[in-house]
Amino acid sequence: MLKLENVSKVYRTTEVQTLGLDGISLTIQDNEFLAIMGPSGCGKSTLLNILGLIDQPSSGSYWFYGEDVARYTEAQLTALRRTVGIGFVFQSFNLIDDLNVAENVEVALIYRGIPAGVRRKRIAHVLERVGLSHRAKHMPQQLSGGQQQRVAVARALVCEPKLILADEPTGNLDTANGEAVMELLEQVAAGGTTIIMVTHSEIFAARAQRTVHLLDGHIVTQDLAA
Ligand SMILES: Nc1ncnc2c1ncn2[C@@H]1O[C@H](COP(=O)(O)OP(=O)(O)OP(=O)(O)O)[C@@H](O)[C@H]1O
Ligand SMILES: [Mg+2]
Q1: Rounded distance, CA 94 to CA 110, Å?
Q2: I want to staple 217 with a disulfide (CB 3.0 to 4.6 A). Which of 43, 102, 208, 209 is the partner?
Q3: Ligand 1 center from residue 114 Cα (angstroms)
Q4: What is the pTM of this model?
Q5: 6 domain residue, yes or no
Q6: What CATH number is attached to the domain comprising 41?
Q7: Closest ligand 1 atom to the C-alpha of 9?
Q8: In this structure, is residue 215 part of a structural domain?
Q9: Does the residue 164 lie in any domain?
Q10: What is the pLDDT of residues 137-173, one digit of tens each?
Q11: Does ligand 1 lie within 6 Å of residue 171's CB atom?
């Protein structure tokens, strides 16, 4: 379970102070598929970064599977991210251009010190799962946007994460490719992984179990799926 209590995030530069999040309290159950919506600048990415241990709240507490991590150091957060396994998927795919599909997925495993033989098996398995076994040797530029995003999902999945954070994963995709990525995330959620997905699509959000609407850094409403 993930639990935010009165979490705020202030960004300070020499000139100005911006309130990224303003008193967020939110509990996310294990195996939940949660959507986050709201206008540009309302704090969606800030919230995901805090949930994913990429960034720290300025105040409030964050219970991450039972540990209060709000005051953790950078090193503690990195260690925890590694043990729990958190998969990230971004709007812009963020694949490495000079590495082929299999190698892009492999990076996540090398980072974790997984031996080569195990890496090969896990890469083959995860590429099968996202329907891209036949593209393992392709370079990212040789793939459609939807295929690139499926590689990014494979890279997130290969470490068998408990939690996947997706920041507008279908934002750069046409309807058909967006649908394919959405179906893939639904399958992953059905397999027991917690998914938190930022989206601008009402239709995709309605397929999550719950939608949280943000405005100016706070939660305005929460809808349960019909
Ligand atoms: N590193 C930063 N430094 C200063 N201000 C920031 C930083 N990151 C975000 N902000 C500010 O915090 C607020 C929330 O930003 P955030 O990126 O979370 O919005 P968002 O909801 O993800 O928007 P979008 O839909 O455009 O991606 C904005 O006002 C933004 O300008
Ligand atoms: Mg954003």
Answers
A1: 17
A2: 43
A3: 35
A4: 0.93
A5: no
A6: 3.40.50.300
A7: 12
A8: yes
A9: yes
A10: 999 999 999 999 999 999 999 988 999 999 999 999 9
A11: no
